[in-house]
Write a structure and sequence with these properties.
Blueprint (H helix, E strand, L loop, with lengths): L8 E4 L32 H4 L9 H5 L3 H8 L11 H17 L7 E2 L6 E3 L5 H15 L7 E2 L7 E5 L6 E2 L35 E2 L3 E4 L18 H14 L2 E6 L23 H10 L14 H4 L1 E5 L4 E13 L5 E2 L14 E12 L4 E8 L11 H8 L8 E9 L4 E5 L3 E4 L2 E2 L7 E11 L17 H13 L10 H9 L8 H26 L9
Parallel strand pairs: 1-9
Antiparallel strand pairs: 2-3, 3-16, 4-5, 5-11, 6-7, 8-11, 9-10, 11-19, 12-18, 13-16, 13-19, 14-15, 14-17
Length: 537
């Protein structure tokens, strides 16, 4: 892998039924979406259940005493809770495969779960220095012009945020002077809605930038290219050549050994007069057919990584630059909520974050989780079977934690948008001094389908920019505009097309967009936490 390539992967899980078991055809797109039923509540438990988000390191595979250590750790466990020789040998062999998937040149390694990648040396120091120098121009503004994110308690400073000067349907115009209108939602199948509730906006859409892979092209929405001409090339190299690279990979569905039921001779019957404790003991002592690993590892992991070429393609990325500032008076950041990025309108399939600077901040993590569909259930109240096979109990949420990864200066992360993520709280290391964290976030719009409106075909909407251009023309003696009488030039300013948006209007639209998306996050979170009902009807 060259230094221009970072394989970002998404997980490619397709099932043939949604949560209520209505058959639907497999989709034709390449990347799954968190807003469509192919990713929401159809990622079945047998696919998602993992042994736990333990670090994957080659050192474990090379440890001659590794197997003995694993067996010693389970000496006090019941038989059905213990790892078998097959399982231990398989896992230790598979760890070497994870090592082979890493790239020493770029430092890219597998994260805590499938399709999560990270690197601590992806961005060369000279590129990082140029990025910081370019972004400093966005930071070097009067305090009155600093854009503190609404509701952040003056902790999150937005330098570039897609919610400001976003697309406002039926007002924003493209370069052909046509108003942009909301996209049509996916059609229903057998009268069943095929997208998540509240996931499609008829009011707003974030505006992506277009980048030709291996190029520094691209107008970043909300940025004055004349004033900040150094920002786009600096961040463009990172966005296109490093974050999503010339190849993106997705992880195909892993075919393992499925065990539909643990009972060798049928479910244990509840006898008359039996107490719950006696029944529990009978279940523990009954013969069981337990899940088992393959006898040997034969490269299944490597087979799941399939390249998706981005070379020569124009990809769409939504850009965000933000600083989190902590002070002695405001020393703690409370963390974020579980969420995916964007809504169905933006079609975001993957996210990348680069933590390019930190100072006086203690350790923090980014956690991940994914919803699963309820497993096929065969008997009422058979809680032990479901717990042993899937880790699920009555009324537990069909949602699996995928682990977390430490965030630190210089680290880059990427993951598929079907995973929810959440930033953990953090605070000042030294409470007597201020501290900060600075991030570049990049959201990849699905490159396998038709593009959405972007900053390439939607001109800048800032009314103050247009006023500045007219003022420059008025002061230019060679301009015909400068020869207009003041009354007429004032009339032109007063009659600006309504496609231009004032700063006050843009901030009002941002609040409305945030309110709409907060509502979706709450609804989406409830849907992802659907409970596993152990009733047979």
């Amino acid at each position: 892998m060259s230094d221009e390539t970072w394989s970002v992967s998404t997980t490619f899980y397709y099932e043939t039924q949604i949560a209520n078991e209505i058959p639907i055809p497999k989709p034709s797109w390449t990347f799954p979406s968190p807003f469509l039923p192919y990713a929401v509540a159809t990622y079945i438990a047998s696919d998602a259940i993992a042994w736990g988000p333990q670090p994957r390191t080659a050192s474990r595979a090379s440890d001659r005493n590794g197997a003995k250590k694993l067996f010693d750790q389970q000496a006090d466990l019941r038989v059905e809770e213990r790892l078998t020789v097959n399982m231990v040998n398989y896992v230790l062999t598979e760890l070497a495969a994870y090592s082979r998937l890493s790239d020493p040149e770029t430092g890219i390694e597998c994260g805590p779960f499938d399709a999560i990648w990270y690197s601590d040396c992806l961005i060369p120091s000279d590129v990082a220095d140029r990025l910081r120098a370019a972004i400093s121009k966005l930071e070097d503004v009067p305090d009155a012009l600093k854009d503190w994110h609404p509701g952040s308690n003056d902790q999150v400073l937005d330098l570039v945020h897609p919610s400001l000067y976003c697309i406002v349907y039926d007002r924003t115009e493209d370069t052909s002077f046509e108003h942009l209108t909301p996209p049509l939602p996916p059609p229903p199948i057998d009268d069943v809605q095929t997208y998540a509730k509240n996931s499609m906006s008829d009011q707003f859409c974030w505006l992506p930038s277009d980048f030709f892979v291996n190029s520094t092209d691209g107008q970043i929405n909300g940025q004055d290219q004349d004033l900040y001409r150094d920002v786009t090339p600096g961040s463009g190299r990172i966005k296109v050549q490093r974050t999503f690279g010339t190849w993106a990979a997705y992880s195909a569905k892993f075919a393992g050994i499925s065990v539909p039921c643990i009972w060798d001779k049928g479910e244990v019957k509840w006898q008359d007069g039996m107490t719950r404790k006696q029944y529990q003991k009978a279940c523990e002592e009954a013969p069981k057919v337990l899940p088992e690993a393959f006898e040997e590892y034969t490269g299944e992991l490597e087979k799941t990584i399939v390249p998706y070429s981005l070379r020569g393609k124009t990809i769409q990325c939504i850009i965000k630059l933000a600083n989190i500032h902590l002070t002695t008076e405001n020393p703690e950041y409370e963390g974020g909520s579980w969420h995916v990025e964007g809504m169905l309108n933006e079609r975001i399939v993957a996210s990348g974050i680069y933590y390019y600077e930190e100072e006086n901040i203690d350790e923090s993590e980014l956690a991940f989780r994914v919803t699963t569909g309820a497993p096929v259930y065969h008997k009422q109240d058979d809680e032990m079977c479901m717990h042993i096979l899937y880790g699920l109990q009555r009324d537990t949420h069909c949602c699996q934690d995928l682990g977390s990864i430490r965030t630190s200066a210089g680290r880059a992360l990427a993951w598929p948008n079907i995973y929810q993520h959440r930033v953990s709280p953090f605070s000042l290391q030294d409470p007597t001094k201020p501290g900060h964290r600075k991030i570049l976030a990049i959201f990849l719009v699905d490159p396998s389908v038709d593009p959405i409106p972007s900053a390439t075909n939607v001109p800048p909407q800032q009314a103050d920019w247009a006023a500045e251009v007219l003022e420059e023309a008025r002061c230019d003696p060679t301009s015909a505009y400068s020869r207009l009488p003041p009354e007429l030039s004032n009339e032109i300013l007063a009659r600006f097309p309504d496609t231009f948006v004032s700063r006050a209007e843009a901030e009002e639209y941002r609040l409305a967009l945030m309110k709409e998306r907060t509502r979706f996050v709450k609804v989406h979170g409830r849907e992802l936490k659907h409970s596993f009902n152990m009733c047979e009807h």
